[in-house]
Amino acid sequence: MKQLFFLVVFCCLIGGKAAAQYDLNAPVPIDPEIRTGVLENGLTYYIRSNQEPKERASFYIIQNVGGILEDDSQDGLAHFLEHMAFNGTEHFPGKGVISTLEKHGIAFGRNINAYTAQDETVYNISNVPVAPEGLIDTCLLVLHDWSNYLSLEEEEIDAERGVIAEEWRTRRDAGFRTRAQMMPALLNNSKYAYRDVIGELDVIKGFEYSELRRFYHDWYRTDLQAIAVVGDFDAAEIEQKVIKLFSKIPAVENPTERYEIKIAPKAETTFTQALDKENPQSSVAMYIRHQAEAAGDKDHGTLKTNYMRALIKNMMSARINELLQKGNPPFISGSLGFSDYPRTNSMLSISATAKENQEATAFEAMLTEAERVKRFGFTEGELERAKTSMLLSFENYYKQRDKINHDAFCEEIADLYLTNSPMPGIEYEFKFAQSVIPAITTSDLSNYFNSLYTKENRVIIVSGPDKEEIKHLTKEEALAIVERVENSTDITAYVDEAVSSNLVEDLPTEGQVVAERLLPEFDAVEWTLKNNTKVVYRFADYNKNQVALSSYSKGGSSLYDVEDLPSVNMASDFIPSFGIGKYDAIKLKKALNGKKANVGFKISGLSESINGSCRSEDFETMMQLAYLHFEQPRFDQEAYNALMTRYMAYVANMGDNPKKIMQDSISQIRTNYHERNLIFNTDYLKKVSFERMETIYKERFNNAADFTFFIVGDIDKETAKALASKYLGAISSTDNKENWVDNKVDGPKGVTQKTIPLKLSEPKATIQIFYNGDLAYTAENRIGMSFISAVLRLRYTESIREKEGGTYGVGVNASTSHYPNAEGNLSVQFDCDPERAHELLPLVYAEIEKLTKTGASSEDLDKTRKNFLKSRAESKENNSYWMNNIYSYYVNGINMTLAENYEDVIEQMDAKTIKKVAKKFFKKADKIEVVFVPKAD
């Protein structure tokens, strides 16, 4: 013990000495890999060479402009303007931006997108191939036009009104309405409280064209814009292109001041209730506002503050998890966190999701934990674990620095430009963190926490279901709880219990490899162990210092009767909270501190699996955890009871949530009301049995010989072989070989049409269409279905969204399955005005009919083909590509890495083939059409 104490003190001394190398009041340098500058017109640019993914680049324009700058007559127009950037620019009229880029496989929504917030608007064109001649110039020209050359044609503006009105409708759910009630209290009736970005419907539908153009002229200007380009290119060359092109944009004369909104302080506590009939959960939170650090004041101390916030959050999360593991937890979930929202404001939040009619209990329990920290701080043991975990995260990030993708850098650049968030570069911050984090003391954290846990600027918000039978916490009750906790003499210091980290003390037998088979098509090897389990290994270091584990065994929940299904299905939610071996969940987390290895399990319909991931140096720990999942699973009745109590509270009011009602209705209809399709609710949870859960788990994970394990990652062959055989080979096995059972859970035959009225707070129709039919599991059918869904998305975007203004977006998803039957599935879903539902439905079927009669246009096919091939090339640069394909080979018997099973099929996909696949599928597929509409009062 004395040795450990000396080591901790020594590390702190060394850390303190190293930290002194940095002046915390000094500005943080910008990543030296970034080429940056400010043009004469005021536009800022950032260029960085990066190689993840290879032969790709991402292009961003960052506008220091958002909804907060709108006049009342412009409420929602910052967001509307973002939409208009995709509806005509000087060099790309109409839908030219999207159509031009999609021809190169750059998909709208996934690769081409934007967002508007209160303070900023950011556009991106991501993962653009750099090889095609002129494509980089095209993307820069798009950014150039987004900067200053939007067309804003009246016809296009009017067409987009419908799209945004439907986006407004889609967003109007319980969460949105609750937030609208919270914001005036939370943000002290400032302008931020009333600018929700989407705006008001009367403004969206009726604003004058001049209002949108005025907002554009006032705020879209070079002195409030930055260009970020990151990719696999010569940064110096791109810098010259940016300077040449963007210097031509004129600066706005006599620019309007880009003002900031400050939230006025308020000494007394503000209280509000935010209730909604469709809100299924009660929650109570206390927020404490502070003025955010000014952008110009951010320095090395800002980085240290960020670390202290993360440490406090980590340690508070661990304490809260302990409360949730024992007896009758005081709340469903709880958290303590920090946020800088909006940018001029900083908040400490203490919140809990409460059981029905127990908001007072939840609030008092969370405040007690905050008060415990205020009075006694954190223990040295807690802090050392938190610091070890944080330093480990920095180390992992540093080792993965070559795999940080272009968009991650662009997003970090956006924060740098907008709020001067430090971006010193990975090497610099890694060294800084190594110096500063070890020197952070419990006193540092106590002082920081207490500086934020003040009595001024407090806001208490109670949210939940608007029901007569639910009693919500009142202002008087909440303030009484605050006073009672602050004056309590019963609060004691947290007691931290140390644990050993010896996961496996001894193995009853040590496994060995008895046979080896090469898999040259995957550059992999299969080992058969003495206990007859199989292990497939492939080295892959696309993701440095990472190793993944997966496995497969036939059976799953298909082997169990209906009465056992709740216990089977809930096992993966409950059993991880029990811990493993000699460790409960709390002690297990402590035992694994300083290691990055995790293992979990899954019981699905037709199979069960053990899955995990780790750092290369923690591979043995991952193998030990896998072994323990078979040989020493842990079942804890108290932890089970605690979690069941929380689940019961969680589902209590779910039945009033329209989304849950729709989900359950669809599930029942799609399975033709089969007895094995159970609805998740209170009755479902009552059927879960702790005893049956234990028995079923042990039945599913009692025979290593029935499993095939897959190990892919940055671990050398001999190490993987030795440790896999040692631990996986020591798992008990039998001669039993199981298979799954087809329980014939099929949908209704033919055509099923239903209109279902729902109680809705906002008038909205939701249309959901499903096709299901037999389809051979061939490469042509699998990829053909993917093409069909992608083409339909393009068609519906053009017809239902853009031409009709009928919806914000149409979701189309297609899939094929091999087992228990070879089938194809396709779904179409969208929200719309209830008055237009039956007007828009025929458009869905018209596009499907076109596919079955004439196939797809060459333009749509070419867009889809290039996007698929682009995504395929990007996926090959990741370890997961090999894991997924080796796993698929063993389960489905098909090698998806072969060009003949993927690239060749994509290249050959033409209108004739699409027509053939579409006709084959849709002609015999069963169809379900469900329209959810508002129930008449």
User: What's the total helix number?
Assistant: 30
Fold-level CATH name of the largest domain: Cytochrome Bc1 Complex, Chain A, domain 1
Low-confidence stretches: 1-19
Residue share in helices? 40-55%
Using the CA coordinates, give the radius of gyration.
29 Å
Strand order of the largest sheet: 12-13-14-18-15-17-16
CATH architecture of the largest domain: 2-Layer Sandwich
- Biggest sheet architecture: 7 strands, mixed
Mean pLDDT: 96
Essential attributes:
Cytochrome Bc1 Complex, Chain A, domain 1; 19% strand; 23 strands; six-stranded mixed beta sheet; 43% helix; alpha+beta; single chain; 937 residues; 4 domains; disordered N terminus
3D structure, described in words:
- There is one protein chain.
- With 937 residues, this protein is of the alpha+beta class.
- It folds into 4 domains: 34-246, Metalloenzyme, LuxS/M16 peptidase-like (Cytochrome Bc1 Complex, Chain A, domain 1, 2-Layer Sandwich); 270-405 and 413-486, Metalloenzyme, LuxS/M16 peptidase-like (Cytochrome Bc1 Complex, Chain A, domain 1); 515-730, Metalloenzyme, LuxS/M16 peptidase-like (Cytochrome Bc1 Complex, Chain A, domain 1, 2-Layer Sandwich), CATH 3.30.830; 751-934, 2-Layer Sandwich (Cytochrome Bc1 Complex, Chain A, domain 1).
- The chain is built from 30 helices and 23 strands.
- Strands 12-13-14-18-15-17-16 form a 7-stranded mixed beta sheet, with helices on both faces.
- Strand 9 (333-339) and strand 10 form a beta hairpin.
- It is globular, with a radius of gyration of 29 Å.
